[in-house]
TrEMBL record:
The lineage of its organism: Bacteria, Bacillati, Actinomycetota, Actinomycetes, Streptosporangiales. GO terms for molecular function: ATP binding; ATP hydrolysis activity. It comes from Thermostaphylospora chromogena. It holds the Pfam family ArsA_ATPase. Residues 13-170 form the ArsA/GET3 Anion-transporting ATPase-like domain. This is Anion-transporting ATPase, ArsA/GET3 family. InterPro entries: ArsA/GET3_ATPase-like (IPR025723), ATPase_ArsA/GET3 (IPR016300), P-loop_NTPase (IPR027417).
Length: 334
């Protein structure tokens, strides 16, 4: 990969969200690899307890600790962290109250689960707080420990509430360590160092949810990033042919003659039958291409950088993940 300016120079926290089924975790993992390329150090964080990172990198389930999981293209390291809200609560109690041992007892009594159930905003503060701490953390030499942090965040429908921690926690604590902690988190997620990226498919429902999510973030004063269109299928036919098929002008007879001339059919009847079957496929392909064109136009209205990731023929394995990271680098993401 050649060195080039990134579209996201200065951004250190990349929050990745998307409608379920769009490949959010896959894109977050590919983005982490891309950002780490060339010798950088990136932390990939998940907060939903699904162990999606472990699955996609084909490694054992992750504990609640930061550990190296991959080497990026051209060098660079990707570390991963699966945040456990209970462990984050214990860390919080120790940090602000020196109560880790007491916190262990509280977890046995179910108090931690009770607290995060009646105050779900507290759970969000705990997991985003851990991520924000990683963004701010510096080593003994005074340099940032991570060049970037990628957060595999909750789905689009919950992302604004998840990130808008000050509002969520306001009814829980107006002063004290919890309030201060929430303010520190909000200071990170609302800064120019943060970008919230949306993963979508070229389909009506995920595109509409993406547009709604962008509008909600903007209304909440939270920073929008880019749009990552995942699982893009190639356009197999020339534009002229697609237009003709969409408008009902596709010449089946001409196709039959071509099949016969190429020796792909035994006779006129066989050629006609194959041509009719192929014509149906062409019309369906043209229809899908037209719908995808419309969805691209809708996404363009958001005015955000847009990146496309090709659908992988063999599915998402580790080699495919590196291929997606390469595509992101080529498009200027990193």
């Amino acid at each position: 990969m050649s060195a080039r300016d990134s579209d996201w120079d200065g951004v250190r926290l990349h929050v990745v969200t998307g409608k379920g089924g769009t490949g959010k975790t896959t894109v977050a993992a590919a983005l982490a690899l891309a950002l780490a390329s060339g010798g950088r150090k990136v932390l990939l964080v998940e907060v939903e307890g699904r162990q999606g990172i472990a699955q996609i990198f084909d490694i054992p389930p992750l504990p609640y600790e930061e550990r190296k999981i991959a080497v990026a293209p051209d060098g660079g390291d990707v570390f991963a962290l699966a945040i456990d809200p209970e462990e984050a609560m214990l860390e919080y109690l120790e940090m602000f109250y020196g109560m880790r041992r007491a916190g262990r007892a509280l977890t046995k009594l179910g108090v931690v689960d009770f607290a995060t159930t009646i105050a779900p905003g507290l759970r969000d503060v705990l997991v985003t707080g851990k991520t924000s701490e990683a963004v701010r953390r510096r080593g003994k030499d005074g340099r940032r420990v991570y060049d970037a942090v990628v957060l595999d965040a909750p789905p689009t429908g919950r992302i604004a509430r998840f990130l808008n921690v000050t509002t969520e926690i306001a009814g829980l604590a107006r002063v004290g360590p919890i309030k201060n902690h929430a303010d520190l988190v909000r200071g990170v997620v609302t800064s120019s160092e943060t970008a919230v990226h949306f993963v979508t498919l070229l389909e009506e429902m995920p595109v509409q949810e993406t547009m709604d999510g962008i509008a909600e973030l903007r209304e909440a004063g939270l920073p929008t990033g880019g749009i990552f269109v995942n699982m893009v299928r190639p356009t197999l036919l020339p534009e002229q042919t697609l237009r003709a098929a969409e408008e009902g002008r596709f010449d089946v007879g001409e196709l039959a003659v071509g099949l016969k001339a190429a020796g792909l059919a035994d006779g006129p009847d066989d050629a006609a039958a194959i041509a009719r079957a192929l014509a149906e496929e062409v019309v369906e392909h043209a229809r899908r291409t037209g719908l995808e064109r419309t969805e691209r136009e809708t996404l363009a209205e958001a005015g955000l950088p847009c990146y496309e990731l090709n659908q992988l023929a063999d599915g998402v394995d580790l080699a495919g993940l590196y291929e997606l990271a390469e595509q992101l680098c080529e498009q200027g993401v990193a």
